[in-house]
C-alpha cells in the first residue's frame, strides 16, 4: 500500500520497506529534516553517511553493556525515588505525564551527564522539559519544510516557540560545556565518550566544528534519552489501569524477584510482553525516519520508486495493520511470549528502527522501563483516577517528533502484600 504525499514524496505501508530503507545494505540518505540542529551537528542528526558511521561508534560505547553495568544501579535507585514520590500523593490522582517526565529526565541526567537533577525527589518540573516539549511542538509540524524553521531560528526575534527552541539548545549546550570543564564526578556517563570524541578529533577538525558537534550531540542525547521512554511509560500505566488483570499478572511475576536487578527483570515474560505491546501501540517515534531513495531508486513489491524520492514508513500505522497483527488494536502482551500466532508479520514491529540506523539506546530504555514498572507495581495497585476520561490519552495524542500522549491520571494504592 502506498500513498502519494506530494510530487516527490510517498508513504509506504509495507514491512518490506523497513529493510530497504534502513537495512545494512540500504542505499538511502536521510531527509533534509535531519538538518534540524544546524549549525550544530551530531551523528544522529546528519545526512552524511560517513559522519554517521564514525560518530555512531562513540554512542555505541556510551550505551554498551559495559557502560550499562555502570548506569543500571543508578537507574534502579531513581526507580525507587519514583515509587517514594508516588507514595506522597496518597489517595490523590497522579499526573502520569508529569511523574514519568521527572523520572525520564532524572535518568537522562544520570546517564548522560552523571548528574542528579533531583526532579522526582523535589517534585519540580525542570524548565528544560518545558522548553523541550514546546520546541518539539514546533519541530514536528515543520518536518516537511524544515528550512522555514531554520530560517526562523536565525532571523526571528527570540520570543515564543523560537525562544523555547533557543533555550532548549542553550540548556543542552551549557550542560555539556560544564561537564567538559568539571570532569566526570568519578562516574561513567555518556558524556565521557562524547568528550573522548571531542578530544580525539582535535587534529582533524577546527575547535568551532568540534564545539558545534559536542553541542549537537548533547541536544540529540537529551531528547532521545528523555522524551522517548516517557511516552511508552504513559501508555503502560494507561493499559494497566484499563486492564488490571495485566497488572496482577505482573505483580505475581515480580513478587519474589529483586526489582533492582535488570537481569532478573529481563527474564520476566509478562513484563517484557507489556513493554513490547506498549511500544507497539504507543511507539515513541510514530512516523519520523524519512529517507531519500538512492541512485537506483527502490523496488517495493512490484512498485518502483524512482531515485531522489522521500519515503516514509510510519511505525504507528504498521504496528496496527490487520494484515500484520491479529486484533491489532488490542493490548495483548501474551502475543510476545505464549501466543505468537497473534503476530502475523514480525517485521512490522520496528519501534527502535532497524539495521544501520538501529536505536543504540534500546537496552538503556528497556532497562529503565523494566525497573520503574516493576518497582512501582511491587509497591502499589494502580487504577484510573475517579472522573478521569480514559479517551483523553488517545484523543489528545500528538505526533511531534516524538509521541506526546494526552493526559493520564491514575491513583496508586499501597499493596498490603508488598514486600
Ligand atoms: C523507548 C525508547 C526509545 C525508542 C522507541 C527509540 C526509537 C528510536 C528510533 C525509531 C530511532 C531511529 C530514528 C531515526 O532514524 O531518525 C532511534 C535512533 C537512536 N536512538 Fe533511540 N529510542 C529510544 C530511546 C533511546 C535512548 C534512551 C537513547 C539514548 C540516549 C537513544 C539513542 C538513540 C540513538 C543514538 C539513535 C541513532 C542511531 C543512529 O542514527 O545510528 N534512544 N531511536
Automatic annotation (TrEMBL):
GO terms for molecular function: heme binding; iron ion binding; monooxygenase activity; oxidoreductase activity, acting on paired donors, with incorporation or reduction of molecular oxygen. Keywords: Heme, Iron, Membrane, Metal-binding, Monooxygenase, Oxidoreductase, Transmembrane, Transmembrane helix. Signal peptide: none annotated. PROSITE patterns: CYTOCHROME_P450 (PS00086). One of its GO terms (cellular component) is membrane. It is found in: Membrane. Its cofactor is heme. Heme binds at residue 359. InterPro entries: Cyt_P450, Cyt_P450_CS, Cyt_P450_E_grp-I, Cyt_P450_sf, Cytochrome_P450_monoxygenase. The keyword Transmembrane helix applies. Pfam families: p450. Transmembrane segments: none annotated. Its main location: membrane. Belongs to the cytochrome P450 family. This is Uncharacterized protein.
Amino acid at each position: 500500500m502506498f500513498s502519494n504525499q506530494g510530487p516527490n514524496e510517498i508513504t509506504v505501508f509495507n514491512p518490506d520497506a523497513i529493510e530497504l530503507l534502513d537495512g545494512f545494505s540500504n542505499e538511502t540518505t536521510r531527509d533534509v529534516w535531519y538538518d534540524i540542529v544546524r549549525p550544530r551537528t551530531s551523528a544522529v542528526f546528519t545526512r552524511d553517511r560517513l559522519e554517521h558511521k564514525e560518530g555512531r561508534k562513540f554512542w555505541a560505547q556510551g550505551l554498551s553493556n559495559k557502560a550499562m553495568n555502570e548506569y543500571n544501579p543508578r537507574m534502579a535507585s531513581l526507580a525507587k525515588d519514583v515509587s517514594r514520590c508516588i507514595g506522597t500523593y496518597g489517595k490523590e490522582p497522579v499526573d502520569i505525564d508529569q511523574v514519568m517526565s521527572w523520572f525520564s529526565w532524572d535518568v537522562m541526567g544520570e546517564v548522560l551527564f552523571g548528574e542528579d537533577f533531583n526532579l522526582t525527589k523535589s517534585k519540580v518540573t525542570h524548565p528544560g522539559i518545558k522548553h523541550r516539549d514546546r520546541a518539539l511542538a514546533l519541530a514536528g509540524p515543520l518536518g516537511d519544510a524544515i528550512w522555514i524553521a531554520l530560517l526562523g531560528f536565525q532571523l526571528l526575534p527570540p520570543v515564543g516557540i523560537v525562544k523555547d527552541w533557543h533555550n532548549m539548545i542553550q540548556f543542552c549546550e551549557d550542560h555539556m560545556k560544564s561537564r567538559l570543564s568539571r570532569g566526570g564526578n568519578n562516574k561513567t556517563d555518556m558524556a565521557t565518550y562524547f568528550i573522548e570524541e571531542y578530544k580525539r578529533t582535535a587534529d582533524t577538525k577546527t575547535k568551532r566544528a568540534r564545539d558545534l558537534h559536542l553541542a549537537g550531540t548533547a541536544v540529540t542525547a537529551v531528547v532521545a534519552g528523555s522524551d522517548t521512554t516517557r511516552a511508552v511509560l504513559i501508555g503502560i500505566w494507561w493499559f494497566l489501569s484499563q486492564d488490571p488483570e495485566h497488572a496482577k499478572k505482573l505483580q505475581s511475576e515480580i513478587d519474589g524477584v529483586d526489582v533492582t536487578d535488570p537481569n532478573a527483570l529481563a527474564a520476566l515474560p509478562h513484563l517484557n510482553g507489556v513493554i513490547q505491546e506498549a511500544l507497539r501501540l504507543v511507539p515513541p517515534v510514530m512516523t519520523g525516519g524519512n529517507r531519500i531513495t538512492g541512485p537506483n531508486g527502490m523496488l517495493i513489491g512490484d512498485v518502483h520508486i524512482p531515485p531522489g524520492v522521500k519515503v516514509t514508513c510510519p511505525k504507528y500505522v504498521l504496528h496496527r495493520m490487520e494484515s500484520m497483527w491479529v486484533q491489532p488494536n488490542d493490548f495483548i502482551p501474551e502475543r510476545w511470549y505464549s501466543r505468537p500466532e497473534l503476530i502475523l508479520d514480525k517485521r512490522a514491529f520496528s519501534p527502535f528502527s532497524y539495521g544501520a540506523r538501529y536505536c543504540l539506546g534500546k537496552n538503556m530504555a528497556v532497562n529503565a522501563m523494566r525497573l520503574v514498572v516493576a518497582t512501582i507495581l511491587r509497591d502499589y495497585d494502580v487504577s484510573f483516577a475517579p472522573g478521569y476520561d480514559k479517551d483523553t490519552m488517545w484523543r489528545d495524542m500528538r505526533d511531534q517528533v516524538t509521541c506526546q500522549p494526552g493526559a493520564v491520571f491514575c491513583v496508586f494504592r499501597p499493596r498490603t502484600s508488598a514486600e
